[in-house]
Amino acid sequence: MTGARPLMVAAIGGNALLRRGQQPTIAVQRDNLRRAGAELAAMAERCRLVVTHGNGPQVGLLARQAEAVADGGGEPAVPFDVLTAESEGLIGYLLGEELSRHLGADRVVVVLTRVTVDPADPAFAAPTKPVGTTLTEAAARRAAADRGWSVAADGDGWRRVVASPEPLAVVEAGAIGVLLDAGLVVVCAGGGGIPVVVGREAEGPVDAVVDKDLTSSLLAVQLGADELVILTDVDGVFRDWGTPRSALLGEATVAELRRTRWSIGSMAPKVEAACRFVEATGRPARIGSTVVHR
């Protein structure tokens, strides 16, 4: 649109709603959203805004609840594509309501979002995406033995890990663009979107979780966004994180970022998402703990 305000895609991590060690209640998540909601609303007054979000803690909790019901009644486990849809609705509603308090309900829309993946993606053979609440190593290993989970260390605890295939296209990108042109703030692509396969040989949902930062980057490219902001619980990207040499990177080129090995379970997908957006558009991407637009 000629003369349109700049378009920002802001990706909020699932831990922004539910931090490590917190009780997974709706009240806690609403409280955590208040600061982010106020800052996002301020941004929405200056630019067109798309808000994406993670769902790791929430989808893991939904999975545990569904498994408890299945274990008690002999019902099959709920597949992850459905759990992602449930978490998209839950978090999208909370985010939408918080933004509506600042902007008005008629300016915010929540879109249930699908993303296409390749059924032959090698990620299906090597699950790496952490989901669910943090467990002790002993509890994680019991769950692996009892439920057939894949588990891995994540920070100072252990979590379940599931397949995380590459996102190929956001199905609703065109509709999201129409909503943006109508002046609406769009909340979408929750948890990386619901993974689906589209094609002649295979079509339908997929039991996996797509990385929300990679989907956010892809969506930002599809929409022609002016900037991608990836929000996390640290101030930015730190080289040599967790060592005495740790140092915050104020600015970095794609080449500089790609020369460094980042933690696969946390910073690596964020850095990769930022790099992909910059490479595809030549426009800036930021990673940090604040949504304040400079």
Taking the alpha carbons of the first and last residues, their distance comes to 23 Å
Report the CATH C-level class: Alpha Beta
**Parts with pLDDT < 50 across at least 5 consecutive residues:** none
Annotated CATH architecture = 3-Layer(aba) Sandwich
Number of domains: 1
Predict the CATH topology: Carbamate kinase
CATH superfamily: Acetylglutamate kinase-like
Strand order of the largest sheet: 3-9-2-1-12-15
How would you sum up the global shape? Answer: globular
**Oligomeric state of this protein:** single chain
The overall pLDDT average reads: 85
Most strands sheet? 6 strands, parallel
Topology (elements, then pairings):
Layout: E1 7-12, H1 26-44, E2 48-53, H2 56-73, H3 80-103, E3 108-110, E4 114-116, E5 129-135, H4 137-147, E6 150-154, E7 157-162, E8 169-170, H5 173-181, E9 185-188, E10 194-197, E11 204-205, H6 212-223, E12 227-231, E13 238-239, E14 247-248, H7 254-258, H8 267-281, E15 285-288
Parallel strand pairs: 1-2, 1-12, 2-9, 3-9, 4-10, 12-15
Antiparallel strand pairs: 4-8, 5-7, 6-7, 10-11, 13-14
Helix pairs in contact: 1-3, 2-3, 6-8
Explain this structure:
With 294 residues, this protein is of the alpha/beta class. The chain has one domain (7-112, 165-288): 3-Layer(aba) Sandwich (Carbamate kinase), CATH 3.40.1160.10. The chain is 38% helix and 21% strand. The protein contains eight helices and 15 strands. The strands form four sheets. A six-stranded parallel sheet has the order 3-9-2-1-12-15, with helices on both faces. A hairpin with a 7-residue loop joins β13 and β14 (247-248). α1 (26-44) packs across α3 and α2 (56-73) crosses α3 (80-103). The protein starts with 6 loop residues before the first strand and ends in a 6-residue tail after the last strand. The relative contact order is 0.17.
